[in-house]
Design brief:
The chain is mainly α. It contains 20 helices and five strands.
């Protein structure tokens, strides 16, 4: 809960503007005012600080297939964006709440709960496009431009300090830190939040259309969430708290959608499979098996093939390998070929220790999907697990040349991946130990330690690289 609170407040405080900014035109010239208040380089440094904290806390879903899908979708929507210095990066957060947020530096986070809760890929794309628009319209920099010169940095420091307090185990302390630092500023920002949200709706709708989706998915999804939340007392709909939805806003989006042609687009197989993979991750193995048994028996699924894939994932997690193979075969008979189906074949073979079968599945998959990075990374994992160091090292060199910024390639394994991470890589992965075969993590000086000591420091003023210390509570 404390991690969810921090993520929600981050989205609310950094993306919602101040009331005095309400007179700006809907699509302003963003150049001078945004760059003067907060440069792209500053935003990138801020975003990296947050991402380090979130990854170190285990908040980010580190799964090659999930990461590949969400980034392919995000970059498909933002293909027409031309902003020098901006590199958009999409990730999935391990959180059951229905929410999403944008961070400085081009980072867009989608909660696993939101992806699972969508009923179509268009609904998911509408949220991804909306959050992308928050970034491309420079909402964070525009907020800073009209506020007190020190206010946003103090706000950023407050949230970062609360993140650190939460990581150190002081849940109540982190809530207190946030309350003290944000109080009046939040109330001032809420009055203008609707203006930024409407702008993000408008620009995000353009991204939806450019990505080939039906723009009507955006107001329809917001309306469905609002209606469901009206009759529910749980806190699942955090999206509505950080992205206030009103009947006027929904009506405006519906009217705007009339300007676009209707597009009947089927959900991609990747979307269907990723949604079920994440669903299995949120349940215990036994719960997941029971969930899919009930779903399949009653026919309560949006796609039968995806439901059988989810069952296969659940049975694999329960170590029911013959049943997992059978369920996967049913999924494959009902779905088009997809890299994730080959990945599941290999995962079942790996669980049984059949390295040859795992490699065969992955290479058959790569023969059909030559550019599938998840299949290539999975092959590397199989070679490492099977002890084939020579082949693993050769493949590692190829993949590092092909994907020089893929941080997963720089994780260490005993006696195999003896390599160094380029300075361009900013994610805090464990580095290999060259003194022994042990997998002792080695961190860069700018990374946060995995287990905070009594005193830890984190940069809260990225423009000056100043550091503030916070004691463990």
């Amino acid at each position: 809960m404390k991690k969810t609170l921090l993520a929600s407040l981050l989205a609310m405080t950094l993306l919602q503007p101040l009331a005095v900014y309400a007179d700006l035109p809907s699509l302003p010239d963003l150049g001078e005012i945004s760059d003067a208040s907060l440069s792209m380089a500053d935003e990138a440094r801020i975003g990296r600080d947050f991402m380090r904290a979130m990854r170190d806390d285990g908040d980010v879903v580190e799964d090659a297939e999930v990461n590949d899908y969400i980034n392919v979708l995000g970059h498909r929507l933002s293909a027409a964006v031309r902003m020098p210095g901006l590199q958009l990066s999409y990730f999935v957060v391990n959180d059951k709440q229905i929410n999403a947020f944008a961070m400085p530096g081009g980072y867009v986070g989608i909660n696993s709960g939101l992806l699972i809760g969508t009923q179509s890929e268009g609904e998911l794309a509408s949220v991804v496009g909306h959050e992308t628009a928050h970034i491309t319209q420079r909402h964070i920099a525009r907020m800073k431009a009209v506020s007190d010169a020190t206010s946003p940095l103090l706000l950023l420091g407050t949230v970062l300090a609360a993140v650190l307090a939460s990581r150190a185990g002081g849940g109540q302390a982190s809530i207190g830190t946030l309350s003290a630092g944000l109080g009046l500023q939040i109330s001032n920002q809420l009055s203008f939040s609707r203006d930024f949200e409407r702008e993000a709706d408008r620009v995000g709708m353009q991204y939806l259309a450019q990505g080939g989706f039906d723009v009507r998915a955006m107001p329809a999804f917001f309306q469905r969430l609002e209606a469901a939340n009206r009759y529910s007392d749980n806190n699942a709909y955090a999206f509505l708290r950080t992205h206030p939805v009103t009947s006027q806003r929904i009506s405006e989006a519906q009217n705007r959608a009339l300007e676009y042609p209707v597009k009947m687009k089927a959900d991609s197989t990747a979307y269907l499979l990723v949604r079920e993979k994440l669903r299995v991750m949120t349940l215990s193995p036994d719960e997941a098996v029971r969930y899919y048994q009930t779903m399949l028996e009653k026919g309560q699924y949006l796609n039968e093939g995806a439901a059988w894939y989810g069952m296969s994932r659940a049975q694999l997690a329960s170590h029911q390998l013959p049943a997992a193979r059978s369920a996967l075969a049913k999924a494959e008979s009902r779905l088009p070929a997809d890299p994730m189906l080959f990945g599941q074949e290999a995962a079942i073979a790996r669980e049984s220790g059949d390295w040859a079968a795992a490699l065969a599945s992955l290479r058959r998959g790569q023969a059909q999907f030559k550019d599938s990075q998840p299949l290539q990374l999975a092959e590397l994992d199989v070679l490492i697990d099977s002890g084939n160091r020579t082949a693993a090292q050769a493949l590692l060199r190829q993949l590092q040349s092909r994907y020089p910024r893929e941080a997963a390639l720089y994780r260490s394994e005993p006696g195999c991946l003896q390599t160094r991470m380029p300075s361009a890589i900013t994610r805090p992965w464990a580095m290999p130990s060259t003194s022994s075969g042990a997998t002792r993590p080695r961190w860069s000086s700018s990374s946060l330690p995995r287990k905070p000591r009594a005193m830890t420091s984190i940069c809260v003023l990225p423009s000056k690289r100043a550091c503030a210390k916070l004691k463990k509570c």
